[in-house]
Amino acid sequence: MRGGTSKGAYFLAGDLPAEPVLRDALLLRIMGGPDERQIDGLGGAHPLTSKVAVISASTDPSADVDYLFLQVVVGRAEVSDRQNCGNILAGVGPFAVERGLVPAGERETSVRIRMVNTGDHATATFPTPGGRVDYAGDTGISGVPGTAAAVVIEFAPGAGRLLPTGSAVDVVDGVEVTCVDNGMPTVLVAAASLGVTGYERPQDLEEDVALAGRLRSVRLGAGRLMGLGDVSGATVPKVTLLAPPRAGGAVTTRTFIPVRCHTSIGVLGAASVAAGLLIEGAVGADLAVLDPRGDRVRIEHPTGFLDIESSVRTGHDGLPTAGRTAVVRTARKIFDGTVFPRPADRPAGGHR
């Protein structure tokens, strides 16, 4: 399924091994890893197209289904569960209805989803005329050709701190940053503080060796401050460069995942950026052009924009906390069938 601006393989949990080591080994073979081209599997040789959703009925009374997101790393024999994915999330509700985990309504269906990676919750609402998922519609999102039915996703406030370090601004490797987590641990950095404009093409930023070194240093330092430990082998936190808007939005972004520059921006990453811009004194707050008429924050990215409904409140401890967070995405079923994974590698000197 395509979910938002990502593409991934969606599985019922019961169709995969329960043991994580066995499950991940199978998924690597299904997606074509660790070959960086993923030529022998379903993956598309890019982090945005090398994703997996594992869905099951939930035992949580406040959720209908559990959603485990797995990032199959391109070029390495690694499967990571250390982050959520808000784009792949857009396909979870329709998948749950398709597989009979949730009954469809006659006009629309809302599916309550527990995101296993973090324990956070979201509700996805989408059209189901006549009790069947309808993927056709007139909603367009940047980074996806054509239009499809809207999937409205509303996120429940997370239990963690919006500012994991307790500060609106921290200094890492001589650079001012804001560490924010509104569903995705994210490090906000003014592009100018790293010697770039923030308007460069993603491929140009990826080829900037000096920038890559600075980003790595900032990400490692921020990860420790955020309580994530050594993040050298992790895909979080994301680093987002901020610059003044150019196309009527609130801010221009360039996001790294963690080395490749995103051609758009992840949903949960955008939610964290939007919340960060609403925090007084945070990095980027002085760059942002916010709409005083409401809580919609338009995040510009390399291929367009993403609108986030976002609000921030003051908690009992005087620190900012997330209020409402919602987004409109689309999803589409691409194929439904049987995948034939590459056979497991033979042990050295072994026979079949």
Describe the structure.
InterPro entries: OMA_tautomer-like, PrpF-like. This is 4-oxalomesaconate tautomerase. One of its GO terms (molecular function) is isomerase activity. 16% of the residues lie in helices and 30% in strands. By secondary structure, the chain is of the alpha+beta class. It folds into 2 domains: 2-157, Diaminopimelate Epimerase, Chain A, domain 1 (Roll); 170-318, Diaminopimelate Epimerase, Chain A, domain 1 (Roll), CATH 3.10.310. An 8-stranded mixed beta barrel has the order 1-2-3-4-6-7-8-16. The longest helix is centred in the middle third of the chain and has 17 residues, at 209-225. It is globular. The two termini are 35 Å apart. Mean pLDDT is 94; it is low at 348-352.
Blueprint of the fold:
Elements: E1 2-3, E2 6-12, H1 20-31, E3 51-57, E4 65-72, E5 79-80, H2 86-89, H3 92-98, E6 108-115, E7 120-127, E8 150-155, E9 170-172, E10 175-181, E11 185-190, H4 202-206, H5 209-225, E12 238-243, E13 251-256, H6 267-277, E14 296-301, E15 304-314, E16 320-332
Parallel strand pairs: 2-3, 4-6, 11-12, 13-14
Antiparallel strand pairs: 1-2, 1-16, 3-4, 4-5, 6-7, 7-8, 8-16, 9-10, 10-11, 12-13, 14-15, 15-16
Protein name: 4-oxalomesaconate tautomerase
Family: Belongs to the PrpF family.
Pfam families: PrpF
